[in-house]
Amino acid sequence: ENAASDHLLDGLNPQQAEAVEYRGQALLIVAGAGSGKTRVLTHRIARLIENREAWPSQILAITFTNKAAAEMRERVEGLLGGRAEGMWISTFHSACVRILRREADNFGFSKNFTIYDSSDSRVLLKRIIKQHDADVLGFTPANASAKISKLKNELADAESYARNANMSDPNEVAFIEIFRDYERALRSANAFDFDDLIAQTVYLFRAFPQVAALYQNKFRHVLVDEYQDTNHAQYSLIRELTREPEGAGYLPGTNPGAALTVVGDSDQSIYAFRGADIRNIVEFERDFPGAKVILLEQNYRSTQNILSAANAVIANNFDRKDKKLWTDVGDGEKIIGYTGYSGHDEAQFVADEIEKLHSAGLAYNEIAVFYRTNAQTRALEEIFVRSALPYKIMGGTKFYERAEIKDAFAYLTAVVNPADELAVRRIINTPKRGIGPATVTQLASFAENAETTLRDALREASTLGFGPKMTRAISDLSAVLDEAAALAEKGKVSEVLTTLITKSGLIDALRLSRDPQDEARAENLDELVAVTKEYERNNPDGTLIDFLTEVALVAAADDIDDASGTVSLMTLHTAKGLEFNTVFLTGIEEDLLPHRMSANEPGGPAEERRLFYVGITRARKRLYLSLAMTRAQYGETAVAMPSRYLQEIPAELIEWKQSPGSANSRGGTQPRALNARRWQSNRGADAAALPPAEKKQWPNRVTGTVRDNGDLELAPGDRIRHTDFGEGRVNNVTGEGSKRVAHVQFETAGAKKLLIKIAPIEKI
Ligand code: ATP
Ligand code: MG
């Protein structure tokens, strides 16, 4: 054993070390959460490079999110004490985009293709459904896109689907037409949707063995994290990539194909709804004969109390191999339970606890708050903003989903990929320049007859017999796009963007508008310019295509900037693979967890239980489980029932905190017994079980209307009254403008930080 390499094995247990050192064609590491699977992958990569068994460029590592990829790269570089240039560490989608950008011209696409996100797909499907009058058959953009996505994940296309379809069923016939038109539209727009990225790469490899051979020859090691969540298309991609290369220049028997290492945990499979197939892990040994299997059992992440809760919950799934996680770090603190009156009350508890932990020295970025549905963020955000708690929503695609941001991206796309008709249609009359639907139809049919693109039709405006004003409007737009295209050749994404949004009139239309919302929209565009500048700093060689690719991939999965110094808010799905010192699992209620959509699906409640298990096992030291007695959901406030999964945790592991209505804290009635009864029976309670007086006494304190104390002057020494916290004294005021924060010592509620602009306070 050479001493210089030992740092890669020190600090690994014997099974982990074996996994790092094993050399064979196929290796499967199966183990529960926090047992060091990802760490083993990282060390294995470093070992291969350090031993010169592989160049960095011969390694392909697949992670589930971009964030995980960035982390893994950092760790490997840390272990190697330097950059590992040329190594591919990325998500399935990013790896496929990279391959497709290089190879797309082999099969009728060009490398400047657009990536459609789900809302782009839906816009397209909406038009197609309308053309076929298929809405009367019950087709919607949402259900059609879900069905198409599912098929693509199984590597079915419209043709293969049609071969097995029942053509006497009008629904099937209509669906096939929609699917076909959708495929055609993508192709003529030079666009891939998200599922295509993987499926088309597989088709490419199968149709062009010499292209496949390039990659089969390039990669000596393929490593996949979170293998339990791969779907059929992803599985097929891995098979293609690890095959022996064939064709001219490749001698049979000289290259057995890349070695494959996969790690996973079937208890953490949470993407069945997207076609993830647990069988990929269960049948690994059959698919890759001679595969070595290594089990890891020791958990290095969490305390025993947290693990015992996780073990107890997951043991209720019957179709699994029993494995028990253990640790030698000790029991640790008990899990803390809390039942709020409402979602807001629950959120207030979370915020207050975070403040306490922070005051005691815990950094904000060591804390995470998880929830099942995005809708739950509303209450959390309102309270966090009021409490001036720094937070960041991870995986929140919100910014990129805003209409004005999508408009700006449509401009950029029209420059990069003029064939993308969807993008050109989006910008043609945004901002309003008098080009109505009739004109667009005329332009589109000209394009069709002339066998050119809608983008090129804009250039011909003067020959199409429009009036002078219309001709002028169209030509001006075309000229702006040309100018931006010339700029794009030379680089600087921010300049291209600035040119587009100013010269097209997009930003001025918002700035001059009387709608107060438009001011915020203009600010968002400014923010987008800032994003491009940041991108340029981080990627000096990045082109406009690279930028659009990054945003398309990142916005879909996780976040572009890091969250240092802030509390992370995310869905349980996004939390996979991550760990935090302290975790708040919120909304542990029936209809949320298990989600009401899953309740009647076969395997649904079991998958939701795995999701709960994933959430619990993210916590290192401290775990909070919270719920509310009433929750505003689907537009109404309803009584919420404790989740069935709560009862699966042994009672002695949880310490239930005083509920907010208890006499000493807020002077209300004591609902604790009621809570206990409710979560033990988990049935029976209905709206009537809540005394009306309580509802009245504890209305949602925070309502939709956000107040504005914009000009309230506060200085140290001032006394104020807060709707909830009562009277207090201002100790300090920090921040500026709308971000001014008052640090207040309340007489009974203790120290709080309040965002002055919106806090429910008055000077007394
Ligand atoms: P998950 O299933 O949640 O993805 P995992 O099996 O990938 O978990 P890791 O994230 O690799 O687990 O490891 C969990 C934590 O334990 C990490 O902080 C890691 O650094 C630490 N860890 C893993 N192995 C060891 C070890 N042998 N000694 C000390 N710490 C370890
Ligand atoms: Mg992991």
Automatic annotation (TrEMBL):
Its EC number is 5.6.2.4. SUPFAM superfamilies: P-loop containing nucleoside triphosphate hydrolases. ATP binds at A31, G32, A33, G34, S35, G36, K37, T38. It holds the Pfam family UvrD_C. Residues 716-727 have a biased composition (Basic and acidic residues). Residues 304-577 form the UvrD-like helicase C-terminal domain. Residues 701-732 are annotated as: Disordered. It catalyses: Couples ATP hydrolysis with the unwinding of duplex DNA by translocating in the 3'-5' direction; ATP + H2O = ADP + phosphate + H(+). One of its GO terms (molecular function) is ATP hydrolysis activity. GO terms for biological process: recombinational repair. It comes from the Bacteria. Residues 10-303 form the UvrD-like helicase ATP-binding domain. This is DNA 3'-5' helicase. It comes from Paramicrobacterium humi.
